[in-house]
Amino acid sequence: MPGIWKKITFSFASLLNIASVVLTVVALSTEKWVIGRILCQTGADLVNASDPELDKFIGDIYFGLFQGGKIWKCGLGSRRSKIYIFPRLVKKLNGGLHMIIILFLFVAIGFSFVSLAFCIYNARKIPYQSIKGPPGLYLWNFIAGAFGMFGIVCFIAAVNQHRLTERVANFKEDIFRFVVLEEEYDFSFWLCVASTATHGTNFIVVAMSKIHFPKIQTKKPDEPSVTAEDFLY
Q1: What is the radius of gyration, based on Cα positions, of the chain?
Q2: What angle do CA 176, 92, 47 make, to 5 degrees?
Q3: Residue 82 β-bridge partners
Q4: CATH T-level topology, domain 4-210
Q5: So what's the pLDDT on residue 92?
Q6: Residue 141 confidence (pLDDT) above 80
Q7: Which residues does residue 18 pair with via DSSP β-bridges, in sequence order?
Q8: Mean pLDDT estimate for the chain
Q9: Which residues of 75-89 are buried (b: 16+ CB within 10 A; e: fewer)?
Q10: Which residue in 149, 144, 136 sits closest to 199, CA to CA?
Q11: Where are the transmembrane segments (predicted)?
Q12: Which residues of 206-228 are buried (b: 16+ CB within 10 A; e: fewer)?
């Protein structure tokens, strides 16, 4: 049976793996990966709007990996519309890259579960094979963190290099054209970053499990020594 310190560290590592899975699932299911402000360029050009009047043509947009929404203004007040990435919008985007992002995140979730299983095993038993011990935990956490990082990098590339926000904003717009004025990553994106960071923290926790604390030894009282001379007296 592992010692108390190892049980504590591996239990904490298990909690980190659970947190990683929860954060990634929440990030996938929420709609705030990117938020931004969009200008209805067509409406602004029709009335030749100047700076004070541009507020009537500036709306908001937000979206995640599966859905989102936008509030657009083209001079006739605010209008809301829902955005669904699947099944049609993904064809207008870089569909292959978008599917790779989702695939990477699901693979990261899968290896997080593998790491969780090995953490529970190490908290209960002493493994006889190195792959089931700390070396295996390093490997599974590295793979999970790497796939999570790949997904994040691919999403950043989609936003910056493939004009993801502009394509989402202009989907199904035959009359109006929208221009992205501002865009930034929101809490769903940062949840995914935090999920990936937990695997780096797990490296430290697993390394701490190898710390051996010195055993506290109680000093035995000195036993009286009796010699032959003592018996003479």
Answers
A1: 29
A2: 10
A3: 69
A4: Butyryl-CoA Dehydrogenase, subunit A; domain 3 (1.20.140)
A5: 87
A6: yes
A7: none
A8: 85
A9: eeeeeeeebebeeeb
A10: 144
A11: 12-29, 97-118, 138-159
A12: beebeeeeeeeeeeeeeeeeeee
